[in-house]
Every structure is written in C-alpha cells, then in structure tokens.
Specification:
The relative contact order is 0.11. Helix 11 links the parallel strand 11 and strand 12. With about 475 residues, the chain is an alpha/beta fold. The protein has 16 helices and 17 strands. Bound molecules: iron/sulfur cluster. Iron/sulfur cluster (SF4) binds next to loops.
C-alpha cells in the first residue's frame, strides 16, 4: 500500500493514476489534508501548503517516506513533476509519459487539424508529456489515418446508433462490463428485449434531420441471444431506423461459443456488414483459467463458419497480460490468428479494476498482474502489420498492464469507423440499452452525455426516465 497525503485539494485523480502507473502492484490511497495538515484520517503526515506550491507526501506501509513539492495550480506541470520524481526514484520510464488521458490520438489529431506541422506536434507532445518516440509515432500514424477516414463523414447530417445486449454465455473472469450470464431462465432476456424495443421505438424520432451512418450492437455478447430473439431485435432496429444506407453495421458476435450458422444467417438477413469473433487468446490453458468456456478449435470453427456465410469483414480481439501468459503464448496466439486471416485485429492490454474477480484470483494464485506486456505488445503489433493491417484507433484505460494502450488494426477498407467515432467524440451517438451512454457533440466539439442505468433490472424499471433524458438532450436543446 502506498499512502499519499496531498494538500493541493484537487486533481486527486491525476495524482492517483500517475502514482499507480509507477507502483502497479500496490494499492494507492490518497488522503487530502488542509492547509494546516489537519487531516483526521490515517496516516497523519504533516504537509504544508505554501501559496501555489503544494506538497505530496508518499509513505509506504514498509515505512519508506518521501515528499514531492508540486505546482498546485497547473495540472500538466503537476503531472510532469510527479512523473520526473517517480521516474527518478523507480528507474521506470512510462511509454505514454505523464499523459493520463484516454485519447492521446485525439490530442495529436486536434493539433494536426489546427495546422501544426508534424514536427511541431511531435515536439509539443514530447515536451509536454514525455511520451516515448515509439508511442508518438504510433499516435501520429493513427491520427493521420483517422483524419482521412473521417473526411467522408458529415456529423451535421449523421449520427451513430449503439445498442447494448448485456448478456453472455458465461461471465469471463476479467470482465469489467455489466454482463449477465444468459443461463436457462430466459425471462430476464425477454423482459430486457421488450424494454430495449420500446427504447428503440421512442428514441428513433428524437434526432431529427439526421440519419445513422454507423450502427454498432455490442455488449455483452449480442449472439448470446437465441436466433429468434436476435431476429426480433434486428427487425425492430430496421423498422425504426434507416439501416439500408448505413456505411457500417456491426454486431459484436464476440464469444465463439455463442456463434451458430443459424444466428449468422439472421445477421446476414438483416444486412450486418461487420462482425467480431473474439478469441482473446489462442492458448487453451488460459481460456480455461479466464472462464471463456470455449476451445481454441471453436474459435477457428466459428471464424470459418462466418466466412462461409459470406462475412468479409471479421475482427478478432486479443488481450495481452492474461494470467500465466508469456511472450511465447502471445506468439502462438498471433500465429494462429494469422492462419485464420481476419480482416482486423484489436489488441487489448488487460486493465484490472481493483475489485474485479480476476484481481482476487491473481492474488490468490500468485500470478504477477503485470507481466512483460511491452514485449507482448511488440509481438502482437508486428503480427498485425505482417497480416497487412494498419493501426487506426487507439485508446487507453485506467490500470492497464504496463501502462500501455488498446489499438485497433485493420486491412485497407475494413476499418471499423464506429470505433473511431466513439473514441474521438466527433459526432452524436444515440446509445440504447443497459449502461449505454448517449453523446451529443456540438459544433464546437463540446460533448453532453446521457447515461442509461447499468443493471438490467434498473434499466427496465427506469426506462421512461432514460427516454425522457435523451429527449431533453436532443429535442429541448435544439
Ligand atoms: S464476453 Fe466480454 S462482456 Fe461477456 S463476460 Fe466475457 S468479457 Fe464480459
């Protein structure tokens, strides 16, 4: 445990995430104390605020203690100071430097769009955040590709539609989503679908004068639904939205154990253009540990079945940093995925939320929760490039193994546009279903959000209120 006493009175999130990145194996706890150090929570360490200079006092439970004097009023400078000090003490350099935000490519893109030269952008990002040359080049490449891919879009005429299906065949050990195992009792699924159809109907008329240009059905695992349920849901979308003229219609099939020929035919019938078949790893021992309840062979079978049914844009997801995996496991996964030949590969780095079941499992079974993910990332990215893919979107999360990133790769013409839109926040997203977050983006790029309740029960019980909130977001703001 690392205790940090701060007398700054703000930016606790930044102080926490910056410090946690240097001490990934430790729980980090921040206590605020006032100007006189009158904190009542333990441990009590005096820290004095002198004008605009604040103080952070670090104390480990083994008794080590040191102080960092920090600028209290400048957020970037505060993070830079913590970064420099902790980097010096630990000997660690972080790939994304002092950057704690989740959208580094957006920062690069905005600078490029403002007319800054490549060199000026690189220098600015390097000096401001200490980002490594390798990550800066990756962010530049992606930002430029995003700019090109977004050129044909018109946010003033279009929006994206997202639907959430929060059910899965079983719950994976590392899952941080609100996912419910479908089980034998379908009544919860039926009640959910009924509510979702009502939300589809009531909200389809809210965004006037705009049409969806991408639709994404995620979750969860939408193909955990029965073929009839899937058919019903997709028909409802079709009845209320223009699905014929969309540029991209994705269903995240996800778990291979949920994919059948019948369901793939339902997807085809409703014009789905892009699906995911996600192995996460192609090592059976890891699949068993993380509770995926499917075999490596099933991944190949589901993939071939989808190809046979005519799907020519298939993404596969993999996760780096899964328990017990080393670089050889990652090489095996990349090689087996490469044999299948998907059109896109999304490389995730495991992000562990503190309370997740997986974190407990790792602790109990003695697995380090941050293996050499940087080397794994190099292998996976090189593999994606060898498959003829280019990186086209990137985002970061809190507590990512190795303080790395998630990156989507795809072959030319198979980029998932919705993935860019959800990350870059450049156009409206009408998001329906449990936990879905709608976003309205104004012409200045400011975003207003409206979040649905996460739990299925709460979602069903509060449906009218959530519909009304969306109405307020779009209709009353016009
Ligand atoms: S398939 Fe995805 S959403 Fe479903 S339980 Fe596993 S990690 Fe969670």
């Amino acid at each position: 445990m690392i205790f940090i006493e701060s007398n700054i009175g703000k930016n606790s999130y930044d102080i926490h995430s910056m410090s946690k990145a240097f001490y990934p194996h430790e729980d980090v706890k921040i206590t605020e104390c006032d100007i006189h150090g009158n904190d009542t929570s333990q441990p009590v360490i005096k820290a004095e605020n002198c004008g605009k200079v604040g103080k952070l006092v670090y104390k480990s439970d083994t008794g080590d203690m040191f102080e960092i004097e920090v600028p209290a009023d400048d957020r970037d400078e505060l993070k830079r100071t913590i970064y420099q000090e902790l980097s010096l003490r630990t000997g660690i350099s972080l790939p994304w430097g002092s950057l704690t935000g989740i959208r580094p490519t957006g920062m690069v893109r905005k600078r490029l769009e403002s007319g800054m030269s490549d060199e000026a952008v690189m220098n600015d990002m390097r000096c401001r955040y200490y980002i490594s040359q390798e990550k800066l080049q990756l962010a530049m490449e992606i930002a430029k590709r995003e700019i090109e891919l977004m050129k044909p879009l018109s946010p003033e005429k279009n929006y994206s539609l997202y639907l959430d299906v929060p059910f899965c065949p079983t719950r994976c050990l590392y899952c941080s989503f609100t996912s419910n195992a479908v089980g034998r009792d379908r009544s919860k699924v039926e009640a959910y679908l009924e509510a979702l159809q009502k939300e589809i109907k009531e909200t389809s008329v809210i965004i006037k004068n705009k049409k969806p240009d991408t639709i994404y059905i995620g979750g969860g695992t939408p193909t955990a639904l029965l073929p009839d349920e899937l058919d019903l849901l997709l028909a409802s979308v079709e009845d209320h939205f223009d699905t014929v003229n969309v540029k991209e219609y994705t269903v995240e099939a996800g778990r291979p154990d949920s994919i059948t020929k019948e369901k793939l035919r339902v997807l085809k019938k409703h014009g789905i253009t892009r699906i995911s078949v996600n192995p996460q790893t192609m090592n059976q021992k890891t699949l068993d540990i993380i509770g995926r309840r499917h075999s490596v062979e099933q991944v190949g079978e589901a993939f071939h079945m989808a190809r046979e049914e005519g799907f020519d844009n298939i993404n596969m997801d993999m996760i780096l940093g899964l328990p017990g995996e080393d670089t050889d496991d990652v090489k095996r996964t990349v090689s087996r995925i490469s044999e299948l030949g998907p059109d896109a590969l999304t490389i995730h780095t495991l992000a562990l939320k503190r309370a997740s079941e997986m974190k407990e499992w790792l602790n109990e079974n003695g697995y380090p929760d941050t293996p050499d993910t940087a080397a794994m990332m190099d292998i996976a990215c090189a593999g994606a490039r060898q498959m003829g893919m280019n990186p086209y979107y990137l985002y970061r999360q809190k507590n990512m193994a190795g303080n790395l990133e998630n990156t989507g790769y795809a072959t030319e013409g198979k980029y998932g546009i919705y993935n860019i839109l959800i990350n870059e926040e450049v156009q409206d997203i009408l998001a329906l279903g449990a936990g879905a977050i709608s976003k309205r983006v104004d012409s200045e790029g400011n975003t207003e959000r409206s979040a649905n309740f996460k739990e299925v029960h709460d979602y069903i019980a509060n449906l009218d209120e959530m519909i009304e909130r969306k109405r307020r977001l779009w209709v009353y703001n016009d």
